[in-house]
Amino acid sequence: MQFKPAGDSALVIIFGDRIDEGINKKVHAVANAIEKASPDWLIEVVPTYTSIYVYYDPLKLSYQEALDAIKPFLSVEPKEEKPRIVEIPTAYGGEFGPDIEFVAQYNGLTIDDVIEIHSKPLYRVYMLGFTPGFAYLGGMDERIATPRLKKPRLKVPAGSVGIAGKQTGIYPIESPGGWRLIGRTPLRLFTPEKDPPTLLQPGDYVKFVPISEEEFWELHGGEQK
């Protein structure tokens, strides 16, 4: 475990150097404990794959004092709880997944192979970031690992399912992005007026369920574009 300053009002706790489910569970257990305690100097806790950024009020305590205050939380261990599994209906290929053919060719597979391989595992939500509700998912089969686009798109539709290297994820809102798009879900992943506003939370598991174009528009509400 390592500790480093991050600017003049944050510190980072590094639990490991690889994407690992056990490390990630520890990250979120400690982050949740700090958030629950909610000391008056705390501004924000941001968990990542393998680390936690703790933002504090520098007018109330120094870096060393913040570090000393954080250390008692490091003994917290993850609780063994039944994870929430969220099914994500996904229309693969066509207008929904314009890069699926490239992913298939790059890996020496057919499009059907890509769909089968991508939709088979349960994916852990390791962290949220990039845009509100963007879920970084771990557990993708390396047989479909594919590099990002050399030039990112200016607009990626909300619900797009993409691959970047050995990761897969879902764009919750329309935004720029350089991931290889292989499909799209009609589900709304970010709803600001809800509490919580994101459909997926760190620690959840995702199961992609292939659907047809017709099923997509039915679930979307029938508003074909």
Automatic annotation (TrEMBL):
Gene3D superfamilies hit by this protein: 3.30.1360.40, Cyclophilin-like
Keywords, comma-separated and alphabetical: ATP-binding, Hydrolase, Nucleotide-binding
Domain of life per record: Archaea
Limits of the Carboxyltransferase domain: 1-200
UniProt xrefs under InterPro entries: CT_C_D, Cyclophilin-like_dom_sf, PxpB
The UniProt record lists the keyword Chaperone: no
Record-level Gene Ontology MF annotations: ATP binding; hydrolase activity
PANTHER family: 5-OXOPROLINASE SUBUNIT B (PTHR34698)
Protein name (record): Putative hydrolase subunit
Lineage: Archaea, Methanobacteriati, Methanobacteriota, Thermococci, Thermococcales
